[in-house]
Amino acid sequence: MHYYGNETIMSLEQVLRLKPSEVRILEWVRTYEFLENSFGIDESVPYFLEIKLEVEGVRIRKNRILEFPEFSCEEERSFADVEQAIKVFHEWAQQILSKREGE
């Protein structure tokens, strides 16, 4: 886990254990642009995720990495509370990990 300004960067595995209370404290979390393979070598992943507390609720984004550091937002959703948002955030993280395991 790393901190940059008001942003916390975690691995996809760490995000799967992220709790609503932690999101409330951290306010803005995103995933790394890489994933460690079975040999301990970092490989790029096609997406990174963000969850961010905002005045009007919680926003989550699934960003597709184009030519690093360039990216585009593929999906964005807003929720009234963290509990709702974290469920979808966890689903997205699991989908990315499942695709990597299937390769």
Describe this structure in words.
The protein has one domain. Helix content is 32%, strand content 42%. The protein is built from three helices and eight strands; from the N terminus they run E-E-H-H-E-E-E-E-E-E-H. It has a six-stranded mixed β-sheet with strand order 1-2-3-6-7-8. It has a two-stranded antiparallel sheet with strand order 4-5. The model has no long low-confidence stretch (mean pLDDT 89).
Order of helices and strands: EEHHEEEEEEH
How widely separated are the two ends? 26 Å
- How many helices? The count is 3
Q: Structural class per helix/strand content?
A: alpha+beta
What is the helix fraction of residues, given as a range? 25-40%
What characteristic shape results from the CA principal axes? globular
Q: How many E-type strands?
A: 8
